Amino acid sequence: MATAIQAVLAAGVALNATAQTQNAGKDVEQVVITGSHLSLNRSMMTGIGAVTVIDKDAIERSGATSVDTLLQRMSASAGFAGNQTNAYWGENGYGTTQVNLRGLGSNRTLVLINGRRVVSGGTGANSSVDLNMIPVAMIQRMEVLKDGASAIYGADAVAGVVNLITKKGFDGLEMTARYGQTTRDDARDKAANLAWGINGERGSLMAALDYTDSGTVNMADRAPCGLGEADGKLVCVGSSSTIGGRGVLADGTRVNFNQTPGGNGNFYERYNGDKHNYNSNPSLNAVNPIKRLSFSTFGTLNLDGDKHLFTELMYTNRRSQQLATPGALGVYRPINIAANHPTNPTGQNVLLQRRRLEEAGVRHFLQEVDTTRVVVGMDGKIGEHWDWNVAANYGRNTGVSTTTNVANLDRVDQTLNRAVCSTAANATIPCADYLGFGDVTPQVLRYIMSDLRDNGGNEQKSLTANVRGRLFTLPAGDVGFASGVELRRDRGWLDPDQMTVSGIANTNQQSAIAGDYDAKEVFAEAAIPLLDKHWLADSLALNTAVRYSKYKLFGSNTSYKAGVDWQVRPALKLRANYSTAFRIPSIPELYGGTAEGNLTTTDPCSNWSALPASSVIATNCKAAGVPVGYKQLGNTVLTTSGGNLNLKPEDARTFTAGAVWTPDFARDLVLTVDYFRFKITDAIARVDGSTKLRACYESTGRSHLFCSSEHFTRNSLTGEVDFLSAQPANAAHENISGLDLGGLYTFQFAGYKASLNAEASYLKNYDVTPFEGGETLAYAGKITGGRGSFTKWRSFDTLTVSRGEWSGSYSLQYIGKATDLNASAGDIGDHAPSVTYHNLQFKRTFGKSMTLAFGIDNLWDKKAPFIQSWTDANTDTMTYDLLGRRWHVKLSYRM
Predict the structure, then answer these.
(1) What is the share, in percent, of the chain residues with pLDDT greater than 90?
(2) What is the pTM of this model?
């Protein structure tokens, strides 16, 4: 049994384990695991770092059709990452899915395929990998390193690394079909896969075709309306963008116009939210449909000697869509209707604040994304103890994003201008009546409504060359060494629709994005045995790595790692690692295009001379040359937003320390504990203009970094702010720490083989200081709304049982309790209780040809808790399950 445990732990399950050292003299198989470029024997692997492995059997039992489903269940996952139940995932393009380790952000988690980088994905100029491009059927296992690894892999591995290992050595033909749905008869999920492979003395070739079609769930089927608290009860609150139109009269009265179909078009009454507000949920999806078609091929060709040529080709077409409510006028441009306008029944001037164009119907966000990845390389051996590899890696994705039913605001203005529009039946510019539901005619809708079409993409080119082997032998053992170089260029672009660029579309204004950056890197890594069979230790090894990176935009950066791996006794191993890591700014953060707009801003120097002369603000404003008696004109300041070419890389320091214990009284039990700490400085954050001005003038001697001309300037004569930036800056600091716990127990009973694998994460603290001198936000144990949930406890535990042709598993996903950061104590939904999801899977094999699998997720149909600052469907859709109980069945046939 101990040998079986060793094999499992060598793959890195739970955390890298140590019991294999019991048999170190016999087990010297050379393996490479995520977190190192070294070729190591299994007795050395536990010095690499905390690695979780999701193996082939676990993937097959899960029935998952998307990689994110498996990764987001891990206890180390937290915060915001895109998936099907996040209706609006904007930063990386709607319809994308990611993994977010530790909640540090998906752009701080590096994703690899077979140890090599993957192009960012989405609909253009994106900052992280879209997991949709990777078919689950092609994955042999997933290795997740939960530690900073920039010294090993370069930039962006701040929170850790996800390495997806594809299948190899496949021989024969395999066909797989899967179907699943909820017990509410929705979210129908279909998938089919065809794989073919051949293996021979000259090499191997494998090809696969994969198709998935994920179903839809309307939000109203899970949450009939948006809820809020009133008089101690939850009631439907709805949106104040009403279908009749909500406005303010010249005398200050808030009114709402007719909302009865076919009713009096001139009717209006005082606005009442309970009566007039709009229920958005029927116009949204809780689960959005995604269709994927993927083709993959992997090949190796054995050349003369020990040389091999290898290739990887992956192509994925993803079509996704999201449902959105009808657009509302008055959000992006004010609409003033004069008292004498023919459509105005009030006799007063009206500011139409919100008018939802229900007559036009819902909007659809549609994406079609094509992603291609090609790797060509060669590897071989040098003598007995060294091997080498070189590879060229090319990735590219292009996307088209369409938004339907968007109003042209210039045309809306024209339909209200009686000097331009006409009431004639077939007028080129028809006149419109926006005061009252049903008054907007089909002729007007045809004139003002159109579709937006954006184009974008990402591209990555890289060339790598590596060598590794045994450097020399010390009394305690062989010194392992690896070194290599990498040349890489990343490029991203986004070309929004011209209506969006010009600001006439009834949506957020967006400028074009285009940019790239180059990286040249060299690294070295060593594993140095210090003691072997010594009274101080069964073994003691030092693991080190250093990487030098040079960027055309950012200059150079050196990251390093140092760690010790101490086998104290056969039953106890200790380890510790300290490393530096960094993240370079993403293409949109750098090149996000600059736009100017008059944003609501408070100038702290307004009327500064009325303040006490000794006050910090008065002293600073006077020193800055702001004239006595200066007062801010209005409540807005022309503000620049978008990208910032002056950004520099984020810097991180990580420390992990852990222990692995195989108790003498239970040799089939392995327990692990790891402490982790991340400190990120110069973190990139967006800070609004008012905050920057106040931070500057409240600092002694205007010493704050926001006081530089990079952030704002004043007119030397008038004192007015004539330049103000809300662009991203290296301003924030983040500190996170906690514990990872793991356990693996294998046993037998009644002829069954069984294993219990448990992992849990405890988040002690996650503190974010948005800028120097700003208030520190404590996220640990909180639900944040925009950034997702940071519960203190998370776990995922699995019991697996097998006997003969039968096998099965029962898993528990636990999400601890959390407090709503944005709610007042005592309010309904101010906190979420702990939630446990139960999943059950069975598998039956029929000879060597056929396998039938059946599974149920969320077995007890656990409902998502109500969260006051909900993102959608009255809950935190980034954390909790909206689908409810669902089942799947999968049939595989191999010949």
Answers:
(1) 62
(2) 0.88
